[in-house]
């Protein structure tokens, strides 16, 4: 057993070539997930009948299922039903035509929604009730009070938890390699099947992910500082 | 072997799979036990700013935070034998996979739970520490008798959330093929039942247990109040 | 006799104690008065090492301890002989009233549990809170908590008790009970140093009054001297402001 650094380098190169894929999946999952999660959080916060209960049920159940499992089950359903769904929608694609990365988008978005919506909901609940009364008494309607007063106050509170959620999504990406989606880890392991040594591949994976996540964390600290500054001013 | 889900298959598979739930739970609890002890030490080192060790703990946390769980697991699985061989000349490649899982999990949880306790200890008012010192307690005595018990109360919600996350992360043992709860579902799914039936069952049990753990921690949090009147 | 000699303490650039020396004889009840920022609380905290002084000595009977470079053992020794009563009561939130009192006895002074419990109950009886012995601080009022804090200090059989503004955090109606208890403690004869803003109480219970301002002792003497014949300008100005406030209450 030995580590050969040239193999580490080739794994690094191979892994990095899939950085684009990885980022694509992350960004789409985060954007879509955030939007849907925000809607769900708002619905539950304003207690819109029927929908809140439905969402509450789904969020509770989905939060109880590990992403690995959501991925495996989702993959099975995808493989079994993709063609029938496509035919039903009159689309002339079959599963072979579509890059499986589509599954990655879907699963990671779905996986991220429950936790993000909980973070948002918690932040909304922590806003002082008198803020809402102030909005109504001044004559703002719901969408105005939301946009101008509530959401800006919710952001600094939700931010740390939100970053955690985002990191959770990014950290879930290596799992996608289990169903054949190419991302950093599967990419870094490509040279390993030739050399029969997986050590270097995993080392490369760790390095790339570590750098990626550290960058995200550093950026988030700066954003947090900026948000906190904003918050102090509005409270005075 | 049809590709469609049947309830018959689901209920036939269930008792076979549930036999392996204790394995997963065992991994979870052993990890928690060891990691919590490490975490208290790490938290104490951070809070009392022990020279050298404090920096090491900070670095440790930083590295663990920067790695996906599954990458850490695979890293430990492949690297530990290499390391042990280099240092001691022993080949541990034949060891039960569960051991690697627990080691990787303990490494991860030690950092994260350590952070939970660090924040909790720092949340205890300084006055408590001063009162302890003024009555003649040493640093040790003050920490273990006065500060740590109060920090446990603060830590309960975050610890519970972490507990659930750890429990969820046991599912990633799929990636190295451990014969635990999800491993059994996989092998059964390939053998005689449908993967859909076996995985669905596993999902249901995971959800049920996760919800139960959350409720348990909410209850404990409400009770552990040192007499303060709080609505349960 | 207990004394502090030439204590100096700065927080960063801010010099809080410039050169303070104070003698406390047996049975003394010393009250320290002064505006905020004068260093009175810091002085107390330096004595039992809650703050580390930059310079100075503590003299207990015939032991001289350096307030700056004392080692852990010496500090522990001092804390076993000097008790502290906090402005915010400082009761252990995770212990009952009785346990608060016995904690120092059992853990620090290695008193056996039964003996400690007995002593704890005696003291609780003495302060009139024996029925609350199994209550947690969160279940008690501020006044009750402070009385238990004082009980805890007395139970340690200290050679000196330091009181850091014992009534400043209390609602007005609870202040009286705590002051009565402090009077009781004074009668026991243990030397006490009290930092307080309660002027009439100070006059009544102290046998030595010290006025501090800007990190130095401006004047000290008997209550009669300080309150009725203050010599220094600063003392006079301080008393004017404070006593007028106390008088004005009656005009509301």
Structural overview:
The complex is a heterotrimer of chains A (236), B (232) and C (252). Chain A is mainly α. Chain A folds into 2 domains: 1-18 and 185-236; 19-181, MetI-like fold, CATH 1.10.3720.10. Chain A has 10 helices and no strands. In chain A, α2 packs parallel to α5. The longest helix of chain A has 36 residues, at 199-234. Chain B is an all-alpha fold and 232 residues long. Chain B is 77% helix and 0% strand. Chain B has 9 helices and no strands. Chain B has helices at 7-18, 21-47, 53-65, 69-88, 97-123, 126-134, 139-169, 181-191, 195-223. The model of chain B has no long low-confidence stretch (mean pLDDT 89). Chain C has 252 residues and is α/β, with parallel strands linked by helices. Chain C has a 6-stranded mixed sheet, sandwiched between helices. A 4-stranded antiparallel sheet of chain C has the order 2-1-4-5, with helices on one face. Chain C contains 9 helices and 10 strands. Chain C is globular and about 55 Å long.
Write the layout of secondary structure elements.
The complex is a heterotrimer of chains A (236), B (232) and C (252).
Chain A: H1 5-16, H2 19-45, H3 51-63, H4 67-88, H5 101-125, H6 129-138, H7 142-172, H8 184-189, H9 192-195, H10 199-234
Helix pairs in contact in A: 1-10, 2-3, 2-5, 3-5, 4-5, 5-7, 6-7, 7-10
Chain B: H1 7-18, H2 21-47, H3 53-65, H4 69-88, H5 97-123, H6 126-134, H7 139-169, H8 181-191, H9 195-223
Chain C: E1 2-11, E2 14-24, E3 29-33, H1 40-47, E4 55-60, E5 63-66, H2 72-81, E6 82-85, H3 97-108, H4 113-127, H5 142-155, E7 160-164, H6 172-188, E8 192-195, H7 199-205, E9 208-213, E10 216-221, H8 223-228, H9 233-248
Parallel strand pairs in C: 3-8, 3-9, 6-7, 7-8
Antiparallel strand pairs in C: 1-2, 1-4, 4-5, 9-10
Helix pairs in contact in C: 3-4, 3-5, 4-5, 5-6
**N-end to C-end Cα span of chain B:** 51 Å
Count structural domains of chain B: 2
Helix fraction of chain C, binned, reads 40-55%
CATH topology name of the largest domain in chain B: MetI-like fold
CATH architecture of the largest domain in chain B: Orthogonal Bundle
What would CATH call the class of the largest domain in chain B? Mainly Alpha
How would you characterize the largest beta sheet of chain C? 6 strands, mixed
Strand content of chain B: under 5%
Q: Based on helices, strands and strand pairing, what is the structural class of chain B?
A: mainly alpha
Oligomer: heterotrimer
Average pLDDT of chain C, rounded to a whole number, is 90
Query: Helical segment tally of chain B?
Result: 9
* Number of separate strands of chain C: 10
């Amino acid at each position: 057993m030995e580590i050969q650094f040239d193999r580490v380098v080739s794994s690094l190169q191979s892994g990095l070539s899939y950085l684009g894929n990885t980022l694509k999946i992350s960004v789409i999952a985060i954007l879509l997930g955030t939007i849907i999660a925000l809607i769900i959080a708002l619905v539950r916060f304003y207690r819109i009948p029927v929908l809140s209960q439905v969402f509450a049920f789904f969020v509770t159940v989905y939060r109880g299922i590990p992403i690995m499992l959501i991925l495996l089950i989702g993959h099975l359903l995808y493989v079994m039903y993709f063609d029938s769904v496509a035919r039903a929608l009159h689309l002339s694609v079959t599963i072979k035509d579509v890059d499986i990365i589509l599954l990655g988008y879907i699963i990671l978005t779905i996986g991220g929604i429950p936790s993000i919506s909980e973070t948002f909901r918690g932040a909304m609940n922590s806003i002082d009730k008198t803020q809402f009364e102030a909005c109504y008494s001044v004559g703002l309607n719901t969408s105005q009070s939301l946009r101008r007063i509530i959401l800006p106050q919710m952001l600094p509170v939700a931010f740390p938890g939100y970053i955690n959620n985002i990191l959770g999504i990014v950290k879930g990406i290596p799992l996608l390699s289990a169903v054949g989606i190419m991302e950093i880890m599967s990419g870094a392991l490509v040279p390993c099947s030739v050399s029969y040594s997986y050590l270097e591949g995993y080392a490369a994976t760790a390095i790339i992910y570590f750098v990626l996540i550290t960058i995200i964390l550093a950026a988030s600290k700066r954003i947090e500082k900026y948000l906190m500054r904003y918050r102090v001013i509005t409270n005075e | 072997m049809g590709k469609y889900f049947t309830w018959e298959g689901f209920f036939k598979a269930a008792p076979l799979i549930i036999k392996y739930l204790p394995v997963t739970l065992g991994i979870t609890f052993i990890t928690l036990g060891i990691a919590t002890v490490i975490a208290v030490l790490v938290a104490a080192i951070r809070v009392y700013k022990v020279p050298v060790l404090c920096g090491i703990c900070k670095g440790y946390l930083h590295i663990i935070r920067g790695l996906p769980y599954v990458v850490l697991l695979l890293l430990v699985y492949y690297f530990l034998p290499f390391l042990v061989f280099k240092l001691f000349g022993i080949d541990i490649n034949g060891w039960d996979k569960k051991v690697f899982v627990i080691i990787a999990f303990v490494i991860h949880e030690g950092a994260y739970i350590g952070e939970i306790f660090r924040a909790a200890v720092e949340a205890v008012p300084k006055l408590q520490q001063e009162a302890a010192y003024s009555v003649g307690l040493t640093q040790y005595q003050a920490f273990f008798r006065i500060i740590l018990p109060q920090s446990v109360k603060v830590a309960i919600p975050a610890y519970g959330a972490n507990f659930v996350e750890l429990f969820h992360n046991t599912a990633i043992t799929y990636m190295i093929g451990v014969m635990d709860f999800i491993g059994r579902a996989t092998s059964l799914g390939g053998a005689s039942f449908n993967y859909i039936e076996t995985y669905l069952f596993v999902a249901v049990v995971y959800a049920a247990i996760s919800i139960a753990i959350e409720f348990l921690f909410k209850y404990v949090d409400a009770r552990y109040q040192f007499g303060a009147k709080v609505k349960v | 006799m207990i004394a502090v000699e030439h204590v100096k303490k700065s927080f960063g650039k801010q010099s809080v104690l410039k050169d303070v020396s104070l003698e406390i004889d047996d049975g003394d009840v010393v009250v320290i008065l002064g505006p905020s920022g004068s260093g009175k609380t810091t002085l107390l905290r330096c004595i039992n090492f809650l703050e580390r002084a930059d310079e100075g000595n503590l003299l207990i009977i015939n032991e001289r301890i350096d307030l700056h470079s004392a080692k852990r053992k010496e500090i522990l020794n001092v804390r076993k002989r000097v008790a502290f009563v906090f402005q915010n009561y400082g009761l252990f939130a995770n212990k009952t009233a009785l346990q608060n009192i016995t904690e120092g006895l059992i853990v620090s002074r290695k008193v056996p549990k039964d003996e400690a419990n007995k002593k704890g109950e005696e003291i609780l009886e003495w302060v009139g809170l024996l029925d609350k012995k199994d209550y947690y601080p969160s279940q008690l009022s501020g006044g009750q908590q402070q009385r238990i804090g004082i009980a805890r200090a007395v139970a340690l059989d200290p050679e000196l008790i330091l009181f850091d503004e014992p009534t400043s955090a209390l609602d007005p109606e609870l202040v009286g009970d705590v002051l009565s208890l402090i009077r009781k403690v004074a009668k026991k004869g243990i030397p006490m140093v009290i930092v307080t803003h309660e002027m009439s109480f100070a006059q009544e219970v102290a046998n030595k009054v010290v006025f501090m301002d800007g990190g130095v002792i401006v004047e000290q003497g008997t209550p009669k001297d300080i309150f009725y014949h203050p010599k220094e300008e600063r003392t006079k100005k301080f008393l004017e402001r404070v006593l007028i406030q106390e008088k004005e209450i009656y005009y509301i």
